Amino acid sequence: MMRGFWLLTLLLAASHAERLFIGDQVIRINVESEEQIKLLQALETREELELDFWLSPVSMELPVDIRVPSSSLSSVSEILSANNIAYSILINDLQERLDEEKFEMMENHIKERSGKSFNFGAYHRLETIYSWMDTLVSEYSTLVTKLEIGRSYENRPMYVLKFSKGGNKPAIWIDTGIHSREWVSQATGVWTANKVTSWSQRLN
Questions:
Q1: Phi and psi of 6, rounded to 5°?
Q2: Staple 128 to which of 28, 58, 124, 154, CB 3.0 to 4.6 Å?
Q3: Where is the Peptidase M14 domain (predicted)?
Q4: pTM for the complete prediction?
């Protein structure tokens, strides 16, 4: 799940900046000591290596995932080997994986545009999610309300879905898409909203 989140984040960045990640690898290190954590933290500050730590070195209980540019593969391998730090390769060529993800996203977009049902197992563009929210409100008008609660830093509208049948019962608040690099939370929020409406129908 986490790997998919970072892949989609990079896919978005690549589409806007036209950056390619040909030959870049994503490696995983299972940290075995505090010394290794300190060494990896020092490695993270080496700007010339242009490393992108997907999971930072903070604990021996958590793995460390790093995107290594093709130009730094040899140097990073030598540094890790010299310090007896083992690693595994999660993604051998990041650009190939991004191309696959992009193709899947395009397929999902085409299916939705053709009128087929919303795919809750896929990531979606923001405008697609907003359109789905409008559809949900129209289908469950007695239960769901779409509200604009403000504007983002870029002056974009921020919407919430309110599920209520009236009364003064305690409310549950679910945040999604708060951080610019989030992808999984939006998908989770959409899935949850769909479940709330479907479950409400069963309870009636």
A1: -70, -35
A2: 124
A3: 122-204
A4: 0.56
